[in-house]
# Entry
Amino acid sequence: MRKIVLITAFLSIALVALAQEEFIPVRSTTNDFRGRVEGAFEWEVVDDLTLEAAVQLRLNNDLASVDRIQSSVGARYEVNKYFDIGADYVLINGYEYDVKAWDKPRHRVNVDMRGKVKVGRVQLSLRERLQTTFRTDSVNRYEKMNPELMLRSRLMAEYSIRHSRWSPYMLFELHNTLNAPKVVDNYKSAELRIDNYIARYRLGVGAKLRISRYHRLDFYYYFDYDRGYDIDYKGNKGSLKGYVEENEFRHTFGISYKFKL
# Structure
């Protein structure tokens, strides 16, 4: 009987401690229509090795303002017809609509691998991408990590229409945080803890148009459900000031032009 009482007491204390550490965020939900326009260049320098470059303009706030301009350069190597690998660097220049100014740029490095297989006229592919984003502004690592690590998993199906220049496709993508900060009561007295959660669910449809040997167009629509946490601490005391779960539903319409050598 004594053992049962001691075990029950221990479990009760543990549950109370866990409950004290669990913080419930305030929820906020928004909707936004967005747009993307991109120009890209692709050059197969040698067999199976391709160099890529692109500039993309993004709009937000129901297409009323500029979200960012980002430029990228990268390379992709086709190991065989079932597998390829790639890497790229992206310079992100964000625009702060509230203050009417360009935000401090961010630097992003992506490394990915993709497996693909063709079933009839449908090509199925699975891409796993490790995304690393470096900030140039000063941040509290208990509020935002620098660099931020994200794992992006994308499943895609593309259909090749017989005797047609159009190739419709569908995709589903998940963005998984790898080192998001976990909320604490006071960051000056607590150790940094890491949180992992799915930050984005994406469902997309689109169609690629082969105009000629050198020119390509891509029209697409993405529906995104984004989830993130805005953690705010008091700078002097380090105690938790605010904790908000930000939910956003995004409708993104885009067009991309590619010149391919």
In short: Residues 13-20 have pLDDT under 50 and may be disordered.
